[in-house]
Amino acid sequence: MSNHFTGLSLGPPLGDQRLDLCDLYAFQAPADPTRTVLILNANPNADALHPDAIYRLAVDNDGDLLNDIAFSFIFSGPVDGRQTVDVHLAVGDDAESPFPMGEKIFDAVEVSFGPTANVHQSGGHTFAAGSRSDAFFFDFDGIKNLFDITGGRNFTAPHLGDSSPWTGVDSNLTANVFSIAIELPTAELGANPDIRIWGRCSLRQDGGLNHVDRAGHPSVSSFFNTDDTKLEYNASVPVNDRERWTAQFVHLMGHTGGYTEDEAVAEIDREGTLPDMLHFNPAKPAKYPNGRVTTDDVIDYRLAFLTKGDCPPSGLAPHTDVLDVFPYLGNPHPAN
């Protein structure tokens, strides 16, 4: 549940899986370390994305927590099992707009729902969108055992007794997801020396734009939100995160790990949990919390963070079908 669920009611935004952002990745291209890969996954059903939504990857490259670069992805309505997508690239002030702005770098390119990806090239950009094997791995029943979250309750103190909560079963072993992947020259990102990346899903609704989900650090939204605050959190922007959400995060960490306020703030600062943006210095090897690669065990990392190192590891292994070539996530599993 890196962010496969929004809030603790375990339901997607507006009850629509197409609007649910799952995972965000950033890493150097294995074959060319001068290029960066950004991947935003959505929709655990792995079918067509919402034609009235704007899916976005935004980048801050100067540390002011405002967007300097933004990729917007606009999908057509699906017809006969096919869908296309436009990709807009905005820079500077245009990147702050929640609407698609700037240059259209891909125009109505085909999404893939079959066994292989449709890979598109435009200038220095490589792009693919469609159904892929989900690289995220976790023991969902074990997490429910650990936190006793049946009935949609919020996370509180973990049940760290003599017996392990883990079942040893990867709940996502044969799962698919809708993946949006773009690779580009790292120099275009203007990292000085690092960048911060976040994803957003906004829905055109009632004549306006409803910001229904966001993605940054893995599993932050799932674990730190409450059912009362998740809508506000998903509609908010990173520049306001520290002021608005630090107290809530500190409070939760007091329950889950016995942190004092000073200890919790220090740990949040160490990781850079707030603002909720994925931090990546491309001059250093990618491994969460410096970017994120498809084999990172982000659930064990997050649970160690929450419990001050007291939670035992789940014992799960990364998926073996991830690729070392674009689009990096494996071919989708056959439908059951």
**Overall shape:** globular
Could you give the distance between the termini? 21 Å
- Which stretches of 5+ consecutive residues score pLDDT under 50? 4-8
Helix-strand sequence: EEEEEEEEHEEEHHHHEH
Rounded to an integer in angstroms, the radius of gyration calculated over CA atoms is 19 Å
**Helical proportion, percent range:** 10-25%
The biggest beta sheet reads: 7 strands, antiparallel
When the domains are counted, the total is: 1
Percent strand: 25-35%
Structural class: alpha+beta
Number of helices: 6
Mean pLDDT across all amino acids: 93
Compute the number of strand runs.
12
Overview of this structure, please?
Helix content is 17%, strand content 28%. The chain is α+β, with helices and mostly antiparallel strands and 336 residues long. The strands form two sheets. Strands 3, 4, 5, 6, 10, 11 and 12 form a seven-stranded antiparallel beta sheet that branches. A five-stranded antiparallel beta sheet has the order 1-2-9-8-7, with no helix packed on it. Helix 4 (241-257) packs across helix 5. Mean pLDDT is 93; it is low at 4-8. It has six helices and twelve strands. Strand 7 (120-122) and strand 8 (125-133) form a beta hairpin. It has one domain. The longest helix is centred in the last third of the chain and has 17 residues, at 241-257. The two termini are 21 Å apart.
